[in-house]
Each structure stands twice: as structure tokens, then as C-alpha cells.
Specification:
The structure is a homodimer. With about 150 residues, chain A is mostly helical. The first copy, chain A, is about 70% helix and about 5% strand. Chain A binds a DNA duplex (30 and 30 nucleotides) through helix 2.
DNA sequence: ATACTACTTAAAGTGAACTTTAAGTCAATA
DNA sequence: TATTGACTTAAAGTTCACTTTAAGTAGTAT
């Protein structure tokens, strides 16, 4: 079973031009062509492409993915280097997730804030609520947002 | 207590040129200047800047942040619109987090894979492991990566 | 054989978010 | 008063990851 660039793009949920761009950047060392010059993707390329997608999802840059692929081509001698890349990715993604979770807390507070303001018809009322008038889970977040003791 | 752009930038952990850029883009409707034309940031601006930072952290674009700020300036009549913005942000961030968690699983699998390859001195050995030779938490992830029944 | 769609390339264009540059001004210190 | 460092602007430059364009070729269906 083989696929054209358009079929593979559809499977991966990306544009065909994106796959051409990746190929040009050297991300597809396995790339084969038909006699007429058309790219031929094989089933076995799919897992590889999903790994590239995964690395991209972690925020890795194209040039760094290329670097990783060059290590793959070097074979077993680059196992250590490849392990380090994934260990670094792991730390990176964990950091990204915790940063997003922090932002999410603020966003949830703002949702509560504007829901309350909507019911009251004004934001001034929420601004003047005492700590004990807030839902328990909102107190800490508001305190964090208001903290100005860094000044 | 007032601050120059450099001091405020340091507090927020961004470049001063970034704050000038944000100002130029209309993100600082509160901006005041000294007689000599130098930007004067006040303590009360800090919480606002942190909200902008939060919105940026959720992946919101500058022009959409500007749009939000214009709603803030409209006062209480825009409460509904602002609530909708944060509700949408909430969904967005939750989606981003779950995508990162999915990528993290793959990265963790690759860490295990290369740790095992490192010990064995070759990747071929890991490739040929039977399902029951894998740590329990790795089985599902490998199955997901290998799945080709989409073809 | 013809039409049609999807493929090919190199090169230029896009958009987002800054960053840098150049020329100059402000404000504090020696 | 002179120097220094941080501020000011407009405009140009940078980086990243694509996307689009234009001109042409491949492969398939009628």
C-alpha cells in the first residue's frame, strides 16, 4: 500500500505543501519517487511521520527535528544523543503543561469574575467583594493576581 | 511608586522593546508619560500587564488581546463579550493541555525506548520485544504508535 | 486522444511577534 | 558642565513555518 503526498497529508491532517516543505528541509530521508518523479509514501513511513508530528507538537523547531533525524541515520552510535533529546523534550513539555495550568487558573478566575459581574450587571461589585465572599477556590487565585509585594 | 519601561520589563521578565511594541499596538490604554516624554508605569498597571501576559500564555494573538482591551474600555456594557472571550480561552487552554499530555506520552515512551536501547547497545533489540516484555504502561503507547489500521 | 485532477519545481509572498538600528533626548551623577 | 546610561522614535530587519504562485508534468477516466 502506497500513497501520494495528498493522501498522506490528509491522513496526517496537514497540507500537502507542508509535507513538501518538510521534505525540502530534509525531514524525509526515506523519501522515494515514482518513475515520473512523484513522491511515494509507504505505510512504514507513517509511524515516522507521526513522531515528527509529535516532536512538532512539543514545540521543537524544524532544524532541531532535522538534527534528530540525522542522528537516527547514524544508527546505534547515536542512541545516547537521541535519549538526551527525548529527556530534554520531556522536561520541556512538562514545563509547558505547568505554565498552561497556571494560565488556566487565571482564566478560570476571570470566568468566575465575569459570570458574577454579569449577574450583578457591573464589574465594580466583584472588585469590592471581601475574601470571605469569594468561592473558596477563587481566593488563592485572586490573591496571586493582586499580589504587589514584589514592588 | 512608579517605574520606567526598563524596570517594568525586568519585573515582567520581558524585553523593554517588547513593551514598546505592545504600546504601539494599542495594548496599553493607561499609558502615561513624564514631562520629558518618558513612559511612566504605575503599580496599578502591573496586574493589568499580568493579565496580558496570561492571555499571551494561552496563545492569544496581539490583535485579539487588543480587541479585549477595547472591550474593557467600553465598561459594563461589554461584560458578556468579555465573559465569552474567557470561556473560549478556557476551552482553548484545556485543549492545548490535553494535546501536550498526548505528546508527553509519546515522548515518555521514546525515553523508555532509548534507555532500553542504551542498555542493550542497539535499538533493534527494543524493536523486537514482545508486548509482554514491555513495562505495562508502555504497551498501550506503543500500540497507539504502531497502529496502522487507519490504512 | 482529450480532459482533468493531482502532482512537480523554484521562488516569492505571508503573518506573527518581536528585535535591531540610527539618530537623538532625558535625567542622574562626578 | 560633561559624561553616562536609559530613555525616545520610525523604520527596517529577523525568524519561523508555512503558503502561494506560475509554469509545467504525471496519471487516470472517458
Amino acid at each position: 500500500m502506497v500513497f501520494t503526498i495528498g493522501e498522506m497529508a490528509k491522513k496526517l491532517g496537514v497540507a500537502a505543501s507542508t509535507l513538501r516543505y518538510y521534505d525540502k528541509e530534509g525531514l524525509f530521508p526515506f523519501m522515494e519517487r515514482s518513475e515520473g518523479g512523484i513522491r511515494v509514501f509507504k505505510e512504514s513511513n507513517y509511524e515516522f511521520l507521526k513522531i515528527i508530528n509529535c516532536l512538532k507538537a512539543t514545540g521543537m523547531q524544524i532544524k532541531d527535528i532535522k538534527n534528530f533525524i540525522e542522528l537516527v541515520l547514524q544508527g546505534d552510535e547515536s542512541i545516547d544523543a537521541r535519549l538526551e533529546i527525548f529527556q530534554k523534550r520531556k522536561l520541556e513539555v512538562e514545563k509547558q503543561i505547568s505554565e498552561l495550568q497556571e494560565a488556566l487558573e487565571t482564566v478560570k478566575f476571570k470566568c468566575w469574575y465575569y459570570e458574577t459581574a454579569k449577574r450583578a450587571g457591573s464589574t465594580a461589585i466583584c472588585d469590592n467583594l471581601r475574601d470571605d465572599e469569594l468561592p473558596e477556590d477563587m481566593r488563592r487565585i485572586r490573591a496571586k493576581l493582586r499580589r504587589e509585594d514584589t514592588f
